[in-house]
Design brief:
Radius of gyration: 26 Å
Number of strands: 0
Number of helices: 28
Distance between the termini: 25 Å
Mean pLDDT: 91
Order of helices and strands: HHHHHHHHHHHHHHHHHHHHHHHHHHHH
């Protein structure tokens, strides 16, 4: 099923907002060539330039090429490629005439320069981010622990001395202890000895070392095999999980892990997808589970065509063995999503398809039905005043 078909099959209230960039997380995005990006960056429309620079799919080589660009927004984004910039380019960005460019550069440089960290900490707007990632002198770290400002962010800092990490591991603030429990250098025994609590809906997106290593086999194995729920949840976002780790996470019975596997992994087991759908029907996660390539199809009509819950009756439309008579029956279902699914199915008898074109809540699905004759498609476009 193509991306266009996936979006068309999605319930109306879950349709993506076409004013924002959206793509199926299971679909690899091929970055545009550098020369195409360069042309887009020179486009006279500022919204085109802004959309390009906001894209998460720009390759580091293109971002690095912007370090000396005449547009300050482009230079600011060049800092995203900090690790491959030359020393001269870094110095130029740190001394840029635009304060936003200088700040973006400093937020990267502070990771290895304690002096830059100290300077940035004078601005309270960025204090938490700087304490989370900036290189700290021991004296500064001790002072920040004593001040207790942004302590949970400080607890993540890679340069925090080991004895201060141990002090924060027993801090009275639950958020601080949780942050310490997620530090990458801890072994499993020390990690699980910390008294932490994980929220039912916390997805682990803030675990940076896992988020940055979703394609790293060693990072994935450490996170997926940990007993820490947030590490498991963070690892479940990876499409690169090997079969043994996928099976391990599929057995956790953690709803967040199951949701993430259904969204991101191409080989998520059928039973996990069905559990996500059963638990969350009508949500984005349920839609991603239902449109997953491994979501079951055979036997759904026999199992669910007469189910008391409409979200299950809709699944009967997915069964290749569903008859035209059943599809027509489902096109009259009390549940609108079931009716819409049936109206878009090519097995719907043509007479009923013609009727559905004139039913407001079914017209969109019926108009996209591939069984609609070409002349009928033209008539739909004519009624909408759209030239074929």
């Amino acid at each position: 099923m193509s991306n266009a078909q996936l979006i068309q099959a999605r319930p109306a209230h879950l349709q993506p907002n076409h004013n924002t960039e959206w793509h199926d997380p299971r679909t690899a995005v091929v970055p545009l060539p550098d020369d195409v990006c360069a042309r887009l960056l020179d486009d006279p429309d500022p919204s085109v330039r802004a959309a390009l620079l906001d894209s998460p799919h720009l390759v580091p080589s293109f971002l690095a090429s912007l370090a000396m660009h005449h547009d300050s927004a482009a230079r600011r984004n060049a800092a995203r490629a900090w690790e491959i910039l030359t020393p001269g380019e870094r110095s130029a960005l740190l001394a840029d005439p635009d304060p936003e460019v200088r700040r973006a550069a400093a937020l990267w440089e502070c990771r290895r320069d304690a002096r830059v960290t100290a300077e940035l900490l004078h601005d309270p707007t960025y204090a938490a981010e700087v304490l989370r990632q900036g290189l700290l002198h021991r004296a500064d770290a001790e002072r920040r622990v004593a001040e207790r400002a942004h302590l949970a962010a400080l607890a993540e800092n890679p340069s925090l001395p080991a004895d201060l990490v141990e002090r924060l591991a027993v801090d009275p603030d639950e958020a601080v202890r949780l942050a310490v429990s997620l530090r990458p250098e801890l072994d499993e025994a020390r990690r699980m000895a910390i008294d932490f609590t994980v929220g039912d809906l916390d997805r682990g997106d803030g675990v940076r070392w896992v988020r940055d290593g979703l394609a790293d086999p060693d990072v994935l194995r450490r996170a997926a095999t940990s007993a820490h729920p947030l590490l498991q949840r963070a690892a479940a976002r990876s499409s690169h999980l090997p079969p043994d780790l996928l099976r391990l996470l599929a057995r956790t019975e953690d709803p967040v892990v199951e949701n993430r596997l259904g969204i991101h992994h191409p080989d998520t087991p059928e039973e996990v997808l069905m559990r996500v759908y059963a638990r969350l029907g009508g949500t984005f996660s349920a839609w991603m589970a239902e449109t997953h390539p491994r979501f079951p199809r055979k036997g759904l009509a026999a199992r669910y065509a007469h189910h008391p819950d409409g979200k299950y009756r809709r699944l009967a439309v997915r069964d290749p063995a569903a008859t035209p008579a059943l599809i027509e029956q489902l096109s009259h279902d009390p549940e609108v999503w079931t009716r819409q699914a049936a109206a878009g199915d090519p097995r719907l008898p043509l007479r009923r398809l013609h009727q559905a074109l004139h039913v407001p809540e079914l017209a969109s699905s019926a108009g996209a039905n591939p069984a609609l004759p070409e002349e009928e498609m033209a008539a739909v476009l004519d009624r909408a005043c759209i030239s074929a």
